[in-house]
Amino acid sequence: MLYDVVYIADIGTHWQVDGVMKSDLTFIHPGRQYMKVSYMAALEIKKELVNGNTVTIAKNLQKSEISLGDFSVNLSEGIDIARNIALSAITSTVDAYLVTLSMMEFFNFINLNNIFIEKGIIITEDNREEKYLEIINKEDPKLIESLEKYLEAKDRISQVYWRYEKVEEFKKELMSLTDEKEIESLKNQTLSAIKNP
Fold first, then answer.
1. 38, 57, 111, 149: which is deepest, by most CB within 10 A?
2. Whole-angstrom Cα Rg for the chain
């Protein structure tokens, strides 16, 4: 089941909302903290983030799900509006790819890797081509089928992780920019790269 969640950053007495996404709460970004939100709260928070505003939640709020009225909207000014809008566009695009991965895909990838290890085939980044050929040359149909599934799963996971890394690069570069046109250009370049890797 997918839930609406916000990912948050600690800013002292409050949590700052960095984005809204759907998640089954099993696969989420490393290093992020999350809170469940109601559907209506998710819509309102998304709207505010898309408009470049900052959304905060008091840390002392003791609820399992954030509702309308449980968060504050702080109107942004100047360059912060452009930064917030750009960040919202990039993170929401990448989160749409992230939510397409399931824990079953990760489990399948790990399970297939274990099948190869049990056969004495340890695949690393440095030896992968050699090991792929070794598997093919064994002429074992089940092992070759496992390799095909392994490569499909590896490719899916790698594509999403690459996009996650692009977001992290984007964030670093975004904070160094002080011109709205530069921010817009960086946003458009990053969106293009994410959508067409």
1. 57
2. 21
